[in-house]
Amino acid sequence: MKDKTILAVGAHPDDMDFTSSGTIARFIEEGAKAYYLICTDGSRGSSDPEMTHEKLSQVRRDEQLKAAEILGVEKVFFLDHKDTQLLPSQLLQEQIVRHIRMLRPTMVFTMNPTFYYAVDPYGTGMSTINHTDHRAVGLATMDAVFPLCRDRLIFPEHEKEGLLPHKVSELYFPSYRHEHLVDITTTFDKKLKAIEAHQSQYDSFEDEEKRMRERAENLGREKGYALAESFVRLLIQD
Ligand SMILES: [Zn+2]
Q: Distance between CA 13 and CA 17 in Å, rounded?
């Protein structure tokens, strides 16, 4: 992983920590450099009647910075779009392309743009509807990786600022299915600590820990890993 750079693009503070931080922490331990780009201000994710948008946005920013420090992420960039209003717009594409051209990642992690809903994905009887911001960030990031960041005539203003076209080699979307499995046994504790940092997002950390551990154990079983994360992994041709 030496000389490899990771860019993880999430919609909300906590997205990349819940979905991908075991793998990102492992790659960092193996020598990669990692950066986070968080696209919304996370200002709606609260049921606390005393909470305001401004207060929650600052709380969630601080939680994300703390989690990133636990994982060894170099820097977190925030775009501050309004929570629940993220669209895969040209503005968002340009902002993601700008960060790709600036940071020049080998690997990009983001949310899965094809994931709309799942009927009982974890065998608990409950279904999942994927958050609209998650789909938007996944789609805009996939488009940014290919073709938008590769061609110099797309967002040509970047070239004038010294930001040159770039080719990303690998794109990762988290998956609840058994796909590309990564052994996160040695970094699962870091993942839990990173999730624990997002205190505004859970009532009981014990319940959260139990849920994350069960999922990671189920994913790992097939390959004989104690704990795993699963991804759709796209290797992108030069
Ligand atoms: Zn989210």
A: 8
